[in-house]
Write a structure and sequence with these properties.
The structure holds two protein chains of two kinds. Chain A contains 14 helices and four strands. By secondary structure, chain A is mostly helical. In chain A, the strands form two sheets. A two-stranded antiparallel ribbon of chain A has the order 1-2. In chain A, strands 3-4 form a two-stranded antiparallel ribbon. In chain A, helix 6 runs antiparallel to helix 12. By secondary structure, chain B is mainly alpha-helical. Chain B is rod-shaped and about 85 Å long. Classes of the chains: A mainly alpha, B mainly alpha. Chains A and B meet through helix 2, helix 4, helix 5 and helix 10 of A and helix 3 of B.
């Protein structure tokens, strides 16, 4: 497919020389760990799936507490392919968050955050936070008893933050407790605020990737590395991986459609054995480690403060890692990254299995 | 007989839980629809594999041309134009 007349029409009106030059000149280093380069592209592809399936679902979802649960059941049982779009949206979200975690930890352990790419780390970290909030807000839109309990616990936990906790909790809930107001608020976050933030930050992230080029791991520094053009070599390889990812997402969506529990009743006690989504399990499990009262203070508040400090430290790692900034190996920060990774995996598994 | 009695017993003693169990079909439930879905999934995977094989062939051809032209006449390297 060449469409020469269409191309001539555009070229007669717009100058694409710069874009074409950029496409020709963009090259990607070839080395043993280039596999990790593809995780960012996979997340981008999954975000596109999420946008498309999310738009389809938004046509039929009713964000009002009396109809929300019923509208989801109607999407699943009455609409043509509705069950598939909902299931694909669910599995797309799970996979996007999983690959995003892989991308973040790969960036951390390969020290791709080092100078001059600190802002790439910062924007990526915000994208991870936004994706997790996407997951929580989307889960709540189900308006079933499990989602209701999970959001009550999550927003309650945010309420334990010192100084700003009460305000954050009231802002998220739209009142003192989780109610229909919270549903409307989470719907607004999920389909308006978070997509806008994602587009803005993702745009900046991609621009920074173009500006800085791909990072080469320190282990390959000084070696005579080959490189290859991004267009078309890497893009075609990206396409192949995206097709596999699409296949996995469609298979999971077809074989394992997500459950819908009973409609939420704000006055009923939370169901027994309720657990948050897998990406919150490590936080949930950490909270369980703390007693109700510690040193005369609320144990949950202490836990939330310590978790927040650990997350802030994680976020600021590129700014502490001076040796990487000087293009030297920094085993201490590799060890810190490994500790974070092991803690995350172990606590998630313990939370899942217990 | 024992099974029938235990079934009757469960009907008598746990009617509330039976009434509460509202089953939602998370995907089409009839056997015909299900088999059609699995057939579509198989076709989908076959199509994906063919597409991936074609892209791989295209990529190999591009790499072969690039290897021949390495260091010379860059304008001849095929791009996505």
């Amino acid at each position: 497919m060449n469409f020469p007349r269409l191309r001539d029409w555009f070229e007669g009106r717009y100058d694409f020389t710069d874009v074409r030059d950029l496409a020709r000149k963009k090259r990607v280093p070839v080395h043993g760990r280039e596999l990790w380069y593809y995780t960012g592209g996979i997340v981008l592809f999954l975000f596109i799936i999420q946008f498309l399936t999310g738009i389809a679902l938004a046509f039929y979802y009713v964000p009002y507490f009396e109809q929300a649960h019923k509208s989801i059941i109607e999407i699943v049982t009455k609409l043509n392919m509705g069950w598939f779009f909902r299931s694909l949206h669910h599995w797309g979200a799970q996979m996007a968050i999983f690959v995003l975690f892989v991308h973040v930890f790969a960036t951390l352990l390969l020290k791709s955050y080092r100078k001059p790419r600190e802002l790439l780390w910062v924007s990526g970290f915000f994208l991870l936070g936004i994706s997790i909030f996407f997951g929580l807000s989307g889960y709540f839109l189900l308006w079933d008893e499990r989602a209701f309990a999970a959001v009550r616990v999550a927003t309650g936990g945010a309420g334990n933050l010192p100084l700003i906790g009460t305000w954050v909790k009231a802002f998220l809930r739209g009142g003192l407790d989780v109610t229909g107001e919270t549903l409307v608020r989470f719907y607004a976050f999920h389909i308006c605020l978070l997509p806008l933030l994602t587009l803005a930050i993702l745009g900046g992230h991609l621009l920074l990737v173009q500006y800085h080029g791909m990072s080469v791991p320190l282990a390959y520094k000084g070696k005579d590395l080959k490189d290859e053009p991004f267009f078309p070599n890497v893009l075609l390889r990206d396409l192949m991986i995206w097709l596999v990812v699409l296949g996995v997402a469609v298979t999971l969506a077809t074989l394992l459609p997500p459950e819908i529990a009973k409609k939420a009743d704000p006055l009923a006690p939370p169901p027994e054995g309720v657990k948050p989504e897998w990406y919150f399990l490590f936080l949930f499990q950490t909270l369980k480690l703390f007693p109700g009262t510690l040193l005369g203070m609320n144990g949950e508040t202490i836990a939330i403060v310590l978790i927040s400090l650990a997350i802030i430290f994680f976020f600021l790692l590129p700014f502490f890692d001076r040796r990487s900034r000087e293009e030297e190996r920094s085993p201490l920060f590799t060890a810190i990254g490994v500790v974070y990774l092991i803690y995350f995996i172990v606590m998630t598994l313990v939370g899942y299995l217990t | 007989m024992k099974r029938i009695l235990s079934l009757l017993g469960s009907l008598l003693f746990t009617p509330a839980s039976l009434l509460a169990a509202e089953r939602i079909d998370l995907r089409p439930s009839s056997g015909y629809d299900r088999s059609l879905i699995f057939l579509d999934l198989a076709f989908f995977w076959i199509a994906l594999i063919i597409l991936i094989a074609l892209i791989r062939l295209k990529l190999r051809e591009i790499e072969r041309v690039q290897a021949m032209d390495a260091g010379q006449e860059h304008e001849k390297i095929p791009t996505l134009e």
